[in-house]
Structure formats: C-alpha cells, structure tokens
Amino acid sequence: MTSNQKTRPVGIRPVLDTVVVGAGFAGLYQLYKLRQLGLRTIVFEAGGDVGGTWYWNRYPGARCDVESMAYSYSFSEELEQEWVWAERYASQPEILKYARHVADRFDLKKDIQFNTRVLKVTFEESSHRWSVTTSKNETFRARFVIMALGCLSSPHSPSIPGLETFDGNCYHTGFWPHKKIDFTGQKVGVIGTGSSATQAIPLIAEQAKHLTIFQRTANFSIPAWNKPLAKEIQQQWKDNYRKLRVEAQQSSSGIINMDSDQNATDLTSSQQQKELERRWKYGGLIMWNAFADIMKNHDSNDLVTAFVHKKIREVVKDPATADLLCPRNYPLGSKRLCVDTNYYETFNRPNVTLADIKSHPIKEITATGIETSEGFFKLDSIVLATGFDAMTGPMLNIDVRGSDGTLLTERWAEGPQTYLGISMAKFPNLFMITGPGSPSVLSNVLLAIEQHVDWITNCLQYMTENKFSLIEPTDEAEKNWVQHVNEVAEDTLYIYGDSWYMGANIPGKPRVFMPYVGGADKYRDICEHVSQNKYYGFSVSN
Ligand code: NA7
User: Fold this and answer.
1) pTM over 0.85
2) What residues are in contact with ligand 1 under a 6 Å CB criterion?
C-alpha cells in the first residue's frame, strides 16, 4: 500500500481512466486493449466469472450457432494457434472454458471485480468524469465508461398470471442454475420455441418422463449437423486464419461462405432447389442468406420457406404436428433462424406433446401446472425459454444520466438513439460495444466486438495523444444515423417479423428495428471513414 492510499479517506476511490461494464468477450478484449494504452481500468462483472452470455446460458444443449473456428478471437495469433476446439459448433461449457483461458492467458482477472453489478452511471459536469455506482455500494470515478453489456443479457420472464404460484421448479434458459438439473421421471413444460428452446428441447425430452412444448409462434430451424471437428479441418483454418479473417471482415454477415451474390429471381427452379439443398446439407445459418434477395423479395423468401416446410414434413411423422411446426405469416430470417440438433425429430417421440398456445392461449399457471384454453397440463418443472429484452434492455437496466441531467430512459423512450451504435449525444466519453444501431447480432458477434473494441481503443488513443478531454456525437450526426438505420431496415423483409430485433417480444417496447442491417462490411468502412476524418460527426473538445 502506498502512503497516498494509506491517507485516502474510506469510500473515496482514485479516479480511473476507464470503467468497463461486463466481462464477456467484449469486456475481456477491451480490458486487454486498454492495458496496452496504459489506461487504469476496472471491469465490473455481475457474474461470478468471465464469459458473459456463456456464463449465464447453461441450459442443456446451449451452443453457439456460429462455427467455433470463426467464433473465436482473432487478435492474438498465438491464441488462435494454441486453442483446440472439439466440435464444429462449440457447446456452452467449451466456450466458457475458452473465455476463462483467455482471461488467464492475458492475466485479465486482476482488474475485474466479479459479483458486482453496475447500478448507476452519472456524468458529472463539474469534473467531466463519470461517477459509477455498483451493487457493493461503492462509487468510482472515471474519464471514460465502456458498456460491454452484451445484446442478450437481460432475460425476459413473461407476465403470465400465477407464474409465481407454481410449486415445482421453474427455470429460465438465460439464468440457468450452476448445478446439474436432472429432469428424469418428471413432467416438464417448455414455454417458447426460439433458439434456446430448440437447443434444449431434444435433450430435456431424452430425460423427462413427458415433455410439453408450449408454442406461440413456430420458428424456422435448420440442422447444425454438428460433429467433432476433424484435425485436418482445424489445421486448414489455422494455416489460413489471416486470409479467412479478412474474408469474414469483408463480408456482409461477417461469416465466410454465408453470403450469396445470386438472386433467386435470376435462377431457374431447379437451380434454386439445388442451392437450397446444398445449403441445407451444409447446415446452420447459411440458409439465411440462401439468395441475395432473400430478405428483399417476398417471392424469393417464400420459396425458401416452402423448402423448409417440406423438410419439416419429411421429418415429423404426425401431419398435424408437422403443420403446427411450419412457420407462417412472417418471412424466414426476420426472426432469428434457429440452428438445432434433432429438434424436429424430437416431436416423433412418444413422450413429447406440442401445445399450440396461439390458438389455445395460456390462461394461468397454478401450483401444479399450466392451464390453457385447451385444458390443464400437470407439470413438475417449467422451463421459460422466453428470450431477452434484447439490445436496449441491458443499457436501460442501468440508471444512466448524461450531461444536462439527460436520462437514457427518456432519450430512448421512442427507441434507441445512437451514433454508429457505439456512442450517444449527451453522453460524452461513454461508449457501447455492439450497441443498437450497429450490425452486432446480425453478424458474427465476436468479429463485431473486435471491430468496436479496436475502434474505441483508437479513439481513446486519439483523445489522449491530442489532449482532448471530451468526445460525443452531435445531435445531427446521431439523428442522421438513426434515420439511416431505419431506412435500410425498411428496405428489407426484416421488419415483417415480430422479433426481438424489433423489440416486439417485450410488451410496450417501441417497435424499432435495432441492429444495423446495411452489412457488417459496409458498416466497418463507415466507422473507418469517421475515425480517419477526425471523428466526423463527433464533437471533440478539451
Ligand atoms: P427468443 O428467440 O426471443 O425466443 C423466445 C420464445 O419464447 C419465442 O418462441 C416466444 O414466442 C416465446 N415467448 C416469449 N414470451 C412468451 C409468452 N408470454 N408466452 C408464450 N411464449 C412466449 O429467445 P431465445 O432465448 O430462444 O433466443 C434468443 C437469442 O439467443 C437467439 O435468437 C440467438 O441469437 C441466441 P413468440 O415468437 O414471441 O411468439
């Protein structure tokens, strides 16, 4: 302890250069980069360890829907070369192990305070510092705040009457217990049929005595064809990583082999079917970009929809169940595509029932089960696979107050207002990693994270070198960006799905398409252009 620390009154903390909120993949890499700049940084993390999404989402079958060789950091060649992935798509335990490995390898944990939630961040006009208050009732001051909160970190529990009266066990996929849950011999109900549910359902069905799936909206799910990752494939990636990373950065989706440059309308019917079969056999998210016009042209989208319906009917033996599982009334891809292992096959099991709660809504949950307008389902456990208050929820859960007392809740009342999804007018020196208005969840998120962290780090270096103390976007730049984000979305079919991208899954949330759909490659160019032109659209001052 230095003499300075000895005499400091209790409760007063030294002024930091930077506070980072969150120790998932974004926060970890941001800390690594800030250290290189020599900035004094503390990371606050609500969980008990690193990993973010992969720390919390421990439900059975949790797995990334981007292939493991691509869903990994690119900033360290040594890390790239030494890490060995076990499967084509990494499971949650393996990804969490990877995050822990990164934290240990780069000695990051010593600057992270775990089990500490940031509750309030306030810009202090007098000192031009952010004051950051945590759940441990401590307040820190910092020049910069970087929100590394994740896009899907605020679990959403539905307000179904009686939910709290249920006597059995109730779990949320996004807040899964750390101990092993055994459903053997139980009657289990899963509410929801999004990505989390489609991954969990096949495994729960293998254990449970009986599983009932309460489906409000059928989702499109594409087989992952997951398998152990062959050594040769892994080596090919490692030998070509630099080239492949650049290729990914220069693609619209941030994922290689995914984008298409051919419109369905330019192909014959047999060419269309051949391409769809090829993508189905490859598996996973690439179905989303089967044709260049899939998210632009209803007819092109309809033919991919019909193809997936055909596949569902080929797998699911009971025609009525197959029919219920066929998604309708919204374009494929406008809600996040699911990537599964044996999802549709599970409905052929004798111990699985699909309950259609669109036609027969849930009336209430009682101590012993779920009452729908069709009848009563007696249950021992309920799994809420009901998603997240996505993209804006994590920010709005913190009491954020900018200059002139501006409240984030008021600023975002009609939907998120950001410049580039990275910064906001009235919130000087505050940055968001993969915030609303950036491609984030529409691209390979790890790539999106690295791009934002690099951009923010360069910006802080620019500020420091030029002795600037404050940076924030102008109102005009922010307004223009929000308008651009909306315009590009309105030109696509994305806006026709009641998705979490649109905020449609949360009652009362403004319906705004939140991620930037203009392409990760194009977006990267825009960010470069901004920084290379003296942070065009920002006002910088000392
Ligand atoms: P999602 O994709 O938001 O799925 C949530 C599911 O829960 C979806 O099927 C919803 O039906 C259903 N849901 C939500 N609220 C209710 C209520 N009140 N009653 C019945 N059903 C409800 O979340 P996930 O966790 O699966 O996935 C999130 C992302 O994580 C995913 O997209 C990947 O990127 C990874 P709805 O469709 O709203 O009718």
Assistant:
1) yes
2) 152, 158, 160, 173, 191-197, 216-217, 336, 357, 385-388, 500, 505
